[in-house]
């Protein structure tokens, strides 16, 4: 619970943070009269700004906070640039993550009250009830407070879910769209899907899809002619998302969805896995699709693969080498894990990324992103 004073009265509401951020210890009421400079100073001090003014003005204030967060004093910016220039790639990555986390904390200080049914009782407030229900489930029946930044993220996820993401490898439109749910990684980087679409199938009888996420690879395998797919996922949100997408694409009858950490029971002639690519600690639950602390999922897949492959079967590991360019994992280390797991490499297909950050020279990790390659490793029992 968080509490605040307004007109001499104390109020309370449940704190809601999808990122797992702690509730601000100090909360003050803010409205349209609050200057942006004052709001930024309070946010930097860790004070929560509970908005009681016009909703659209709150959005404008958030934009003003973003400009201030990104506009560093010249001396501060110069020192930061020098520090990054002298750092190793791994140190530069962690400095970048720290800066991003600090920015997120400041921008999350602008808070919006929600009624027990997710309504926002502010002037010119939009109806976000459907977006909240999709992300958070049924209304809890009590008042809540959430950051405006997170609420806008819910709105963005709701629009992605409605519109969907076109995946050309699934076939011609309109029956080739994946609709990501909130908190489930979207297949916006299509190069890894194209790798799976082009690799020769060792068998069309059965495949395991480990960590299915949106279900895009399970759907692709069925579209390629695989008769039966067992898709596993430990996140209930992702399982619901995969079920929705597989049903939309009319391939659900050929897919069994299981809630499991990594492998289902049994063996298959083809086992596919696209684990998180960066071995770093996630700063929020949503980041588990991107960051895999200690390469837990990658190592778990490799160590268990041989025991779940049929004789002559193949395991397909789809993995970016971004971690190698960031100094977070070496190619020798990866190949060592492959050998330790009793596996051998049958072949590897590479593709260069097509996303915008790969060509953005202003990105803090540009050098690593520009050198990145995504690969499909074909593995077999040694």
UniProtKB/TrEMBL annotation:
<dbReference type="InterPro" id="IPR002052">
    <property type="entry name" value="DNA_methylase_N6_adenine_CS"/>
</dbReference>
<feature type="domain" description="Methyltransferase small">
    <location>
        <begin position="178"/>
        <end position="318"/>
    </location>
</feature>
<dbReference type="GO" id="GO:0036009">
    <property type="term" value="F:protein-glutamine N-methyltransferase activity"/>
</dbReference>
<dbReference type="InterPro" id="IPR050320">
    <property type="entry name" value="N5-glutamine_MTase"/>
</dbReference>
<protein>
    <submittedName>
        <fullName>Methyltransferase small</fullName>
    </submittedName>
</protein>
<dbReference type="Pfam" id="PF05175">
    <property type="entry name" value="MTS"/>
</dbReference>
<keyword id="KW-0949">S-adenosyl-L-methionine</keyword>
<keyword id="KW-0808">Transferase</keyword>
<dbReference type="GO" id="GO:0003676">
    <property type="term" value="F:nucleic acid binding"/>
</dbReference>
<dbReference type="GO" id="GO:0032259">
    <property type="term" value="P:methylation"/>
</dbReference>
<keyword id="KW-0489">Methyltransferase</keyword>
<dbReference type="InterPro" id="IPR007848">
    <property type="entry name" value="Small_mtfrase_dom"/>
</dbReference>
<dbReference type="InterPro" id="IPR029063">
    <property type="entry name" value="SAM-dependent_MTases_sf"/>
</dbReference>
